[in-house]
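Listing 4. Sequential folding, example run.
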Amino acid sequence: MNDSTRFRLNRKDAVILFIDVQEKLSAVMDPATFAAVQENLRRWIEGARILGVPLVWTEQYVKGLGPTVAPLRAAMPAGLKPIEKLVFSCAAVEQVKEAIRGKSQVIAIGMETHVCVWQTVRDLEELGVRTFVPADAVISRFEVNRQVGLDLMRQLGTSVITTELGLFDLTQTSGTDEFRAISKLVK
């Protein structure tokens, strides 16, 4: 029998981990694909605010890759600062580990799927943290790398979801102000 509770997002147990969506790296992505992913990343940032889910934000080697792209940087909650890192896996960064301490679920979004997202998810799963990756909120320079990264995560046991699926799973109930706000957000 399958334990379906492992596929259930729960906002009291969850944290959204926004990984390395930076200027110089985004400039080498397919523009149309990046525009769609950026919109879903914005939805996750706004969804975190609506639903009260903590958000952790990282940037990889800012000196070389620049800061987070301006529209997403502007969308971040007031007072939230990025955690700069030099390692690919966010799970290897003490500030990130501290920020997710006490949470059993991480929703990993950002780039690149096959490098920083993959290594973070792998390491979090090794630490016993259940991971969820919205396929429409991660990107790599080449689609084959994104697909291989997602395939490896599935094999690992990560739940590969979509932005809309994840936001509604966190919402759980219709007819509320939160539901109306999330419904408007995903339209």
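-- end of first protein; second protein begins --
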Amino acid sequence: MLDKGVLVIKTENTFNGEIREVAGQTLASLKDGGDHGHGLKNVKRSVDKYGGSMKIAHGGGVFSAKILLYVTVDIV
């Protein structure tokens, strides 16, 4: 959603309810015995680079990421 120069992106995904955290940072779900969610570090780095914010939440079997960016140019 883009409104008055603010772009909000929200995504949700179901998961098995188990999350691995290290040093207070959400790293991965434990789905299928593999690691998932490592791309969130890259997303966070990009969000920070452009002065935005990102909030990660999980509970009730749902994992969500919400990103807020300030847009100063027209998006076509």
